[in-house]
Protein: 5-hydroxytryptamine receptor 7
Organism: Gallus gallus
Amino acid sequence: MVIALNGSHLYGNLRPFALEEPRALGGGRMIAGSWPPRSLAKLGPGGTPPPLPAASPAPGNDSQCGEQILSYGNVEKVVIGAVLSLITLLTVAGNCLVVISVCFVKKLRQPSNYLIVSLALADLSVALAVMPFVSVTDLIGGEWIFGRLFCNVFIAMDVMCCTASIMTLCVISIDRYLGITRPLTYPVRQNGKCMAKMILCVWLLSASITIPPLFGWAQNVNDEKVCLISQDFGYTIYSTAVAFYIPMSVMLFMYYQIYKAAKRSAAKHKFAGFPRPEEMEGISMNGVIKLHKESEECTNFSRLLKNDKKNISIFKREQKAATTLGIIVGAFTVCWLPFFLLSTARPFICGTACSCIPLWVERTFLWLGYANSLINPFIYAFFNRDLRTTYRNLLQCRYRNINRKLSAAGMHEALKLAEKPEFVLRSSDFSREKES
């Protein structure tokens, strides 16, 4: 016989037995087998148990879900706790580095980097306000122990912070697209006030998703042991569309547009004075004519290289933006798509009262989504030399003269570019290969 301890009255009557023989309760959610001998002393005269009041539905938005709580051994708890703690600590450390770098390094205090700070703050909020409670809940098998009132607060923080992170990634993709396609007009409009308004809109829109469950549109699934976001059909479609599907569609579209711009830019890098093998076929020249011809071609190529430095810089920026945004979109999709597909399908599969999805599946997809907050700072550092240099100096406790070091690194990079004309040759060859 299995008795589910979801009703508050039933749980209250069985509490003395649970305190005396906790192992009989099977982790606090299920009671399996027969009563142990010591517990029989609690029975009434004649060996018959006293009558128990029938379990009545708890008021409010209780779900009476009978989900089985997972039971872990000591080794499993240590492994799970170590992994989840490592993810949380690395997320905090990485996003703190981003905030400190942009706020305290003068060269990084640019309007375009304000969005990266907003993203880091959103990811930092996930690590500080959400991950610890989810970690504790997972360590004890998925049982919610923080109370009904805090359940609503926790869900609101979780939804708002994760949505702000996702939507900031969407706005960053739009910002990169406008910077590439409108290099002359967009930077003029890209000032601090404009970025502050965009960031404010992101956070307000993220907060709007958390409001309906707090004001009665869709009640969260919230009983003594379960804390789950509302499974209302309309709210599920609205929240998942605004928090994920629309931002993902915008990011994919922006990436496609930047990729096309980079491809067009690569096709434009053709140098009329550069020697082409097909032009030399069928022409016989002696050594003196060949030497003279090569000298003229080298002079012509140097002049073209000097005049085309600006186009080369634009070409590099477009290629870098396409690569960076491609990795960001790919990582974002891999991390969050499984969770949101599950969240969208769950009410249609399980109904609106409970979740019938195995708990380990839900938690795996949830932490995969949280991992996106961990990898965002490292993706930007990998493709941004200034952030990389600042990270290295901060981690090595070299706080002095960071701005001077960044300027020196920029000059060194410019000199390396000037000394390597083969970059232009490769871009020209790449364009010809595309045409053939």
